[in-house]
Amino acid sequence: MTWVNAIVQGILLGGLYALFACGLSLMFGVMRIINLAHGDIAVLGAFLVWSLTTRTGIGPFWALIPALPVMLVLGYLLHRTVLARSLRGGPLTPLLTTFGLAIVIQNALLQAYNPDVRSLGGAAGGIATGSWRITDQLSLSYLGVLILATAVLVLGGLQVMLRRTAFGREMRATAQDADTATLVGVPASSVYARATAIAVATATLAGVFLAVRSIFDASSGPTQLIFAFEAVVIGGLGSLWGTLWGGMVLGVAQTIGATIDPQYSILAGHLVFLIVLASPHGRSLVALRREGRAA
Amino acid sequence: MTLLRAENVFARHGLLPAVRDVSFGIAEGEVLALIGANGAGKTTLLRTLAGAHPLAGGRIVYDESDLAGVRADQRVRRGIAYVPEGRRLFPELTVEENLLVAGRRARPGPWNLTTVLAAFPALGPLRDRLASRLSGGQQQATAIARALMTNPRLLLIDEVSLGLSPKAVEEVYACMTVLRDSGATVVLVEQDLGRALSTSDRVVCLLEGRIVLDAKTDGLSREEVVTAYFGFHQARRS
Question: Does A187 contact B at CB distance below 8 Å?
Answer without folding.
Answer: yes
